C-alpha cells in the first residue's frame, strides 16, 4: 500500500500592504494555491498543503503579521490562537 498523505486547505485573507501578495505567492510557491481579489487591496488565497507540512505553513503565515489573516478552517485558527498564547506566555520580563 503506497504512503498516503492527507491534504488540507487553509484560506488566507491578504491585505496587500508592503507587497504582501507577491511575498505570499513567493513564500508559498511550492504549494498548490488559488488566489482571487476580493476588494481593492484585498485578496483571498486558498492554500493546499499536506498535513506533514502544517507547522511549516503555520510559521510562514505568522511571519506576515497583520497583513495575512486566516479565515478558515476553524481548526487552523485554533492552532494559531494556541501558538500565539504560548508565545505570549514565554515573554521575557
Secondary structure elements and pairings:
Blueprint: E1 7-15, H1 20-27, E2 32-39, E3 42-50, H2 54-62, E4 68-72, H3 74-89
Antiparallel strand pairs: 1-3, 1-4, 2-3
Low confidence ranges: none
Which percent range fits the helix content? 25-40%
Largest sheet: 4 strands, antiparallel
Strands across the major sheet, in which order?
2-3-1-4
Radius of gyration: 14 Å
Strand percentage lies at: 25-35%
Count of separate DSSP helical elements: 3
Report how far apart the termini are.
52 Å
Order of helices and strands: EHEEHEH
Number of strand segments: 4
Average of pLDDT = 90
Shape: globular
Structural class: alpha+beta
Structural overview:
With 93 residues, the chain is an alpha+beta fold. Helix content is 35%, strand content 33%. The chain has three helices and four strands. The chain has helices at 20-27, 54-62, 74-89; strands at 7-15, 32-39, 42-50, 68-72. A four-stranded antiparallel beta sheet has the order 2-3-1-4. The radius of gyration is 14 Å and the shape is globular. The mean pLDDT is 90.
In short:
By secondary structure, the chain is an alpha+beta fold.
Amino acid at each position: 500500500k503506497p504512503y498516503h498523505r492527507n491534504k488540507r486547505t487553509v484560506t488566507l485573507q491578504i491585505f496587500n500592504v508592503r507587497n504582501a501578495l507577491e511575498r505570499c505567492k513567493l513564500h508559498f510557491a511550492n504549494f498548490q494555491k488559488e488566489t482571487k481579489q476580493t476588494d481593492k487591496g484585498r485578496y483571498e488565497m486558498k492554500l493546499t498543503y499536506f498535513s506533514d507540512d502544517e507547522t511549516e505553513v503555520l510559521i510562514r503565515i505568522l511571519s506576515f503579521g497583520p497583513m495575512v489573516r486566516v479565515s478558515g478552517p476553524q481548526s487552523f485558527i485554533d492552532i494559531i490562537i494556541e501558538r500565539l498564547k504560548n508565545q505570549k506566555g514565554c515573554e521575557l520580563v
